[in-house]
Structure prediction request, 108 residues.
Amino acid sequence: MEISLLFDFYGQLLKQQQQQAVALYYNDDLSLSEIALELGITRQGVRDCIKRGESQLFTYEEKLGLMKRFRETEAGLYEIESLAKKLIEKYDEKIAVKIIQTAKSLHE
Prediction:
């Protein structure tokens, strides 16, 4: 699952063959043999391509941290939404509803 998320963020930075191999393996759930037939390379070549792609995806995340920031932002938005719901119970409903709408629009 983590590789699929990293691929969503950084997949376009991989070489074309790595993009294809990683996408077919993680997103389409094809075997190494099936990918080898699709790409016209050996099974070992597919494995190496996927491993290099995975390594690069982790390196991009380590250096750029986009997925980490995305998760932090998403968690913050859910916290804002939760706090706004508590506001509805205790204070002005109009303000809390506006906060909830704003938070939901950011994470949809």
Remarks:
- The helical segments are 2-10, 16-27, 32-39, 43-64, 66-90, 93-107.
